[in-house]
Design goal:
- The protein is built from three helices and no strands.
- It is an all-alpha fold.
- The chain has a single domain, classed as Orthogonal Bundle (Non-ribosomal Peptide Synthetase Peptidyl Carrier Protein, Chain A).
């Protein structure tokens, strides 16, 4: 399944514990300012791995990768393309 931003928003809605609706957050907006915590970002990562059948390598396990819908989309698309 290719990565799309609607699916990423759905994962954020279910696992991100955000303080606002994931559908209302801009693609470049800082998810951490929207309530994403380090713990919630791990849950988001695990859900994305399961959904897209990918594995985030160590070099992508950093705050900046999960800082916005756009950065998550880029990482998931890159991992999906290389699998």
């Amino acid at each position: 399944m290719p990565a799309d931003k609607l699916t990423i928003r759905s994962v954020l809605r279910e696992h991100g514990r955000l303080s606002q609706d994931a559908d209302l957050i801009g693609e470049e907006a800082d998810l951490y300012k929207s309530g994403l915590t380090s713990h919630a970002s791990v849950n988001v990562m695990l859900a994305l791995e399961s959904l897209f059948d990918i594995e985030f390598p160590d070099h992508l396990l950093k705050r900046s990768v999960f800082s916005s819908i756009e950065t998550i989309h880029r990482a998931v698309s890159e991992l999906h393309a290389s699998s």
